Amino acid sequence: MQATNLPREDCDRSMEEYPEELRTPPISLVSLVGCPEHHSTISKFLHSEQPPINTLALPDFSKISIFSRKLKDPLDAGGHPPGGILKRDWLLKHRTRIPAVAAALFSAEQVTGDPAQWQQVCTDLDNIKVVRGRNMKFVVVLVQKNASDDLSEDHVNALRKRAELDSKHVIVFLQNDATELRQSLKRLAGLFAELCNTYYRDEGRRIKIRMERKNVGHAELIIRYCYKARSFCFSLFVPPFSFECQVAAYAEFRRDWIEALRYYEDAYNTNLEIIGITRRLPAMQRLTEIKAVAEQLHFKLSTLLLQGGKVTEAVAWFQKHVKNYKKLVGAPEVTFLHWEWFSRQYLVFAELLERNAEAIPDSHPSQVASSECCLIEWELQPAYYYGVLTFLTIICSLSDAEYARFVIAEGQRFQDLYEIIALFRRSSESFNSLHALRTAAYGNQRMAREYFSAGDWRNAKQLLEGVADLYRREGWVTLLWEALGYLRECSRNLGSLKDFVHCSIEMAALPIFSDSRLEAPDVKREYGPAGPPTLSQRETIQQEIFSVCKGHISDQSIELIKADDQPLILDIDLVSPLRMAFLTSVTFHNQTIKPGETTYITVSILSQLPHPVEIDQLEIQFNQSNCNFKIVSGEQEFYVVPKPETRDVRIESTPSLIVTNNNWLRMAFEIGSELLALWYTYILHGLGQSGKLECMSVIVMIGRHLTLCCRAESPASLEGLPLWKFENVMENFPTKDPVLSFSGQKYIQVEEPDPLVDLTLSAPSPALVGENFIVPVFVVSKGHAIHSAELKINLVDARGGGMLMSPRDTESFSLDSHHVELLSVSGVNDDSSTSSDDIRKIQQSFGVVSVPFIDIGQAWSCQLTIKWNSPKSIMLYVSLGYVPVPTETNFLRVNVHRSLQIEGKIPFTIAHRFMMPFRREPLLLTKIKASTPADQKMQLPVDETSILIVSARNCSEIPLRLISVSIEPGDNPVAECSCTIMQSGSASTGPVVIVPGEEFKQVFAVIPQVDSPNLDIGEILVKWVRVSDLKQNENSVVITKQFLPRVFVEKPLLVASLDCPAHAVLGVPFSFFVKVQNKTSLLQEIKYSVGDSQSFVFTGPHSNSSFILPKSELVISYKLVPVASGLQNLPSVSLISVRYSTRMDPSLAATAVFVYPADPRFHFGKNSKLLSASGELENLDFKLVQGVSD
Amino acid sequence: MIVCVAVVGHQNNPLYLQSFTEADDALKLHHIVHCSLDVIEERVNNPKKSGPTLNETFLGLLYPTENYKVYGYLTNTKVKFILVTTDLEVRDADVRSFFRRFHAAYVDAVSNPFHVPGKKINSKTFAARVSSIVKTFGSGAA
Predict the structure, then answer these.
(1) Which residue of A571, A906, B32, B134 is most buried, as measured by CB atoms within 10 A?
(2) Do B27 and A527 touch (CB under 8 A)?
(3) A909-1050 placed in CATH 2.60.40.10
(4) For chain A, what are the domain ranges?
(5) ipTM metric
(6) DSSP 8-state class, residue A754
(7) CB atoms within 10 A of CB A257
(8) For the segment B91-130, what is each residue's pLDDT rounded down to a tens digit?
(9) Nearby residues of A1100 by Cβ (< 8 Å), 6 or more positions away
(10) What chain B residue is nearest to A326 in terms of C-alpha separation?
(11) Given an 8 Å threshold on Cβ–Cβ distance, is B51 in contact with A523?
């Protein structure tokens, strides 16, 4: 094993150490003599046969004597004790020197030639016959050039007789023709194979018989013969060896695997039995010999079994083998020999398994499952054996004392080391490929230990780091402790202070897997250089490492501290194992802060180090470096090295900076004064209106050398320590306030400062549609001077939807599409609108105006004029943006927002009604037709007076002063001349206050002058003011308009009117006329009738009919005498126009008349005159109409 | 003789490990128990190979090392029990019986209201009970 640098190859060779004949199945051997020119052809052909046959070619017959020059057959040795168990080269001999068949080649010329040649042939045959005494089979081959050559039967017979052979053992070999040659070769090969088989079987049988016949006093012989027998089935181990062995070997030669197997098993068992029986050799050698034999036999067995695909049996055999020989250690001085041998068993078996891998794992699951010996799958994997093997190798190699006794040189020790490492590596690789990571890691760990003991720190460290990572992940602290112990020593030896400190701190902070036995002394070897994982050991490590960091140099660590004493910086991030030692949590007590305010920050440190740790200085770092601050212990005078970059870092002091085991060290500090500066920084960098202040890290300084840069963690997202979470330790909170412990964050939102400005909106009352509604805006500075401010006004539909214009509504309000409009903003400095920086943009629902500079304490106001076009509820948003401090940029802007909801209401609901004059009834053609109800237009008679009553009801919540109600012709100029509208009654008495809910009525006389089906009369104008506004502003008169619907004007056909006095006096007769005017140019016939009345007696026709000439009038007169007083109905008159078949009945109201019991007297003030009841009825018409309609 | 018993949590972290050997090979037992997790993992991930042990808590012989035999047991909560013995001939029934009693002891231990699930088992009662179970191992007492 020289390949110290190539461990893989080194290992691969272990099986190769076995001789070829042992590793491969035996091959039959045939000897060719004579005619050397054909030997190569025949050899080649035989070798390519299946199974192959080896040839031993002898050019001429003189060499044949080598077969005869053999030792006396040991089988004949009888009672002599054998010299050993197996003969070393027995098998080789049968493979290379002792053929099963000898073939003599003679050319046809030799046989048929002259007598001298024949003589020679005879001599050669005689020589061979001597050799044949060995039971060797013999064949004569006659080489013929071609089939036509004359080779007489006599010649062949003569030759056969001379050679004493059966005729079938004399064959003819044709050499020239290609097909003939091939046939000849095949024939030859067939014959050879048959003879070989016979030979080996005979040999095997011979040995078997001998085994049975002879005294079997020498067990060794039995083994040998078994071996032979099986090998003949093939191999040969000659002298003092067991029969069984030989029989088995012969069987193997014959490729009779089952028999071979049986004999090998016998041989193996016999070999096992002779342990302790045989006294042939000195004990030590004897054992070695037995083991060597067992090894070979077992190897053969395994090979045969594995090649036969019997993996399970092979493994079972191996287990048996191991069990048998494991305890045969032998003399104590040579223990290593045993372990070497023993480990070789594993190695060889593993390699065998690997070679036959395709036959192994998954292909025979059923076999495994059904196996009675309960094999584990793993035992079918080579990796398992490598694993065990490495362990065995260690047993042997680490026993230095034994080695010393045998003067094992250091170099050899090294070789062993690399062998072990190579085996470990192989084992690890195999396990890795099986995804058995833990087992692979164990191999790596042991490999690292070998490297460690060899002083190869780098390799050891590299391996251990991977191993430690696995243990760390799964929380196997004891194993981690061991790995770290090695790592620590590696780092120490490599001079890597950083790694050394890292490992030490981690070890000191490791939890201990409690096992009371660990405290036992003298466990150094088991636990590696770190000793057992105990609390005291942790404390020792911590003390050592911190004394190093504080500059106290101990003997052990002296080489670590370099002269340049560079400070050591360790980063502790979220996945670092050193979180156990220093877990830092930072919480702001508030979630948001505004510049100028202050809040508190709690810095907490948790350590699992067993001893209290005294921290010299803490530095809290934020994402804004000007917020950074340092914390020093109050009791300690800590020198701060003034560095140029550390301008003026705030230094806080705290009573104590000592972190005790598993106890949060909590410190709260005020923070805030720097935040305004931070905020400015953000704004100046254009990062937005607010910023986030986040604590990045907490830097722990211990001594002059050690700086730990810990990533700050929020308590809300604080993850437990991975290794300590399985421990039963008290858990306490990083902050005193438990709420903060669950929700606290390491960052705080810095918001813009509160505005120190009052912005007030006030709306006096609900807005009324049509008026210019004024909303005063007041801006009062209360601590901020207002620079370059602007006021933004926004009108938004209160019901949502944003814009005050919906698509549906735009149709009906096409002219003024906005329901609500912002008309203007009037400020105190309206006149300054010329200045260049003044912003003034007014749109219907949006406006921006600039606000002048307002100093602290001053006020400013403006008025928004908003007009409602329809009743809507809106939200008025007003925001004031200003800069409290004059800067060059405009980023530093403070905004104040106010909003106000304003209802828009309709002031008056305007209604109107058309009527005919009292007791006058025109007959209109359209009415007679009573056409489609869809056309609901009002019909008016042309040139007749119609009455229009307009009513305005105050539907708002405030009293309004109504100035006038009028009807204007509107935009249509035709309307003016087509219709006369007169306001009836006296002129307006001036503004009237209409309280909410009150209704105001105005009567108009409408006389259409044009006969038109679609006459535009005009629109109603209601002028009003708010009661409060009247005195202040005459301009505030609001005109509410409403269009009158168009009317249908047509000529009346007939007009019927009743004519009677306004009142009557009981018993006094009066006249009653019914007048019918014919407005048409046709003769009209009227039928009329008058019903009786209890209140009146009358004269005149009860019913009659008469004709009315065109454009003339029919007057029917009655004389009535009232007989009852009070409001009485006149006798009912019924008129029927015959032409139109229409009844024209006056309404009941029109026939009512009041009957006084006596002639009444009326007084109307000073200037009044007595109105007699019979006077001037005409003039009273309108008033009466009014009264009636109420 | 049982040399070691262990309880391994569902994150493959050790919850309890007790060795019963005078030799100072406690660490090696840690390694053996840890390595046996590989076998358990393979068994659990490839239930086909396990054949009859499907849906059974007892995992049987995990693997024999050079000196030990390792047996495994997997509870429904994915807690593993591991037994390391030096006996070469172990009766299957003995191991099953051992694990059954061990499981009972474990259930009692973690039912303690003061025990936090998933943490190490430090109960002295549990340790004592385990010791007694270990002592009677193989004696036929079930």
Answers:
(1) B32
(2) yes
(3) yes
(4) 15-269, 568-639+647-750, 757-904, 909-1050, 1053-1189
(5) 0.93
(6) P
(7) 17
(8) 888 888 899 999 999 999 999 998 888 888 888 899 999 9
(9) A1090, A1116, A1117, A1118, A1119
(10) B66
(11) no
